[in-house]
Amino acid sequence: MSFNHLGLRTELMRAVSAQNYATPTPIQIQAIPAILMGKDVLAGAQTGTGKTAAFTLPILQMLHASSNGNRSHPRALVITPTRELAAQVHESIKTYGKYLPLRSTVVFGGVGFRPQATRLKKGVDVLVATPGRLLDHAKQRTVDLSKVEFLVLDEADRMLNMGFMPDVRRIINLLPKKRQNLLFSATYVPEIQKLADALLTDPARIQVSPRKNAATDLVTQKVYPVARSKKRALLSHLIRTEKWDRALVFTRTKRGADRLTKQLVREGVSTQSIHGDKSQSARTRALADFKQGKVRILVATDIAARGLDISELPRVVNYDIPQVPEDYVHRIGRTGRAGSNGVAISLVCSDEGELLTAIEQVLQHQIPIEVIEGFRDDARQKPRPAVKPAATPTAERAARPMRPGRRPASGRRGRRR
Ligand code: AMP
Question: Which of 26, 191, 248, 271 has a CA-to-CA distance to 35 between 20 and 30 Å?
Fold first, then answer.
């Protein structure tokens, strides 16, 4: 299948060629024709599958076909859970639409309201937004959503987890009844199904391989057993001895991210952090510096890193093991993207053994363990249990000690990261 068969106009094909995309991804093959036919879409697809182009290309095509040059109201609205994802989707829209006379903009919290209002006033065809700031604009009447023809809910499950559904419902109430709706979600929990039932009319249902398959194919995963008190020393050791040029390091908390960043900087490793307490401009700057290679290590919490697309990221480190197994899959999906290989490293201390087991159950295989002498907590780390359903543990793995620890606190909603 080539892009020629998807019915896209020349300007969009040129933009796709400029990105050097050889063939459409599975989500693009299925979603683009359905959207062009005017159908609602319910897509199970995660970041990294090419879903942004899958909804952007046909929307741009249809907006252009029916454009009368009036930009006083947005005609397409894309809602995303995080600021980073909003910024990234907006970049993609600009990239794919660069040969069409359509205008897009993005609004999210943490940055000035007025400049956004000014941009909205100048006119916009496609608006990308996070829910809270979009509602602020609607309340202040700096945006009028009554002419939206296309609504995209991107990463709907994450919006649900972050508690944004009431805001999303308020936004939907501001939209005209007649419109095309596209809902993208990595998982279908009952609440998402309920939302889909209320929002979509006879949708095309599309499911592309869950990210974990792609992740396990393209990402080499490793577990390093380590004493909690020696995690930072082990990380420094790996950075130094393996001469890491770039790594995205995940911590569980914002304080943990700050502490680790300070310690690495003290050791002379150029490091910055992104998390929810940082101003948006600091987050954007840190990400840009990391992408340009000015910073070697970017320390992040899950929410700040959600949806980040950093090309050629060779290494992701789980400095703290995520409490929710799916977060592991999202984290390691930051590397090994668009066909390139990556390494995902987890520093696991004794009380994280049970979290590791939960992750391995989701992956349905054990992650190979590598021991670096001098960093392990020998007294506490005992053999870990088998994974069910399990890949056969190798003799080598069985010989390496891990110990299940306490259960994590249940639930993650409301936890500040
Ligand atoms: P997304 O899932 O939209 O975040 O896209 C993930 C990455 O895949 C982005 O870096 C895109 O530039 C890239 N991408 C999207 N479509 C294609 C394609 N057809 N071929 C190769 N890469 C693509």
Answer: 191
Domain boundaries, the chain: 3-207, 212-386
pLDDT in tens, 190-224: 889 999 999 999 999 998 875 444 455 678 899 99
Task: Name which residue sits closest to atom 19 of ligand 1, judged by CA.
Answer: 24
Instruction: Tell me if 83 sits within 8 A of 110, measured CB to CB.
Output: yes
Q: 3 phi and psi, to 5 degrees?
A: -60, -25
- Residue whose CA is closest, atom 23 of ligand 1? 50
**CATH class of the structural domain 3-207:** alpha beta
CA torsion 223-358-323-79 (nearest 10°) is 110
Q: Do domains 3-207 and 212-386 have the same CATH topology?
A: yes
Residue 284 above 90 pLDDT? no
Return d(Cα 149, Cα 74) in angstroms, integer: 9
Q: Compute the distance from residue 31 Cα to the ligand 1 centre, in Å.
A: 14
Ligand 1 atom nearest residue 23's Cα: 19
The CATH number of 212-386 is which of 2.40.128.90, 3.30.70.3090, 3.40.50.700, 3.40.50.300? 3.40.50.300
Q: Which atom of ligand 1 is nearest to the CA of 92?
A: 12
DSSP-derived letter for residue 293 is T
What percentage of residues in the chain have a pLDDT greater than 70?
85
For residue range 85-107, what is the model confidence (pLDDT) as tens digits?
899 899 999 999 999 999 999 99
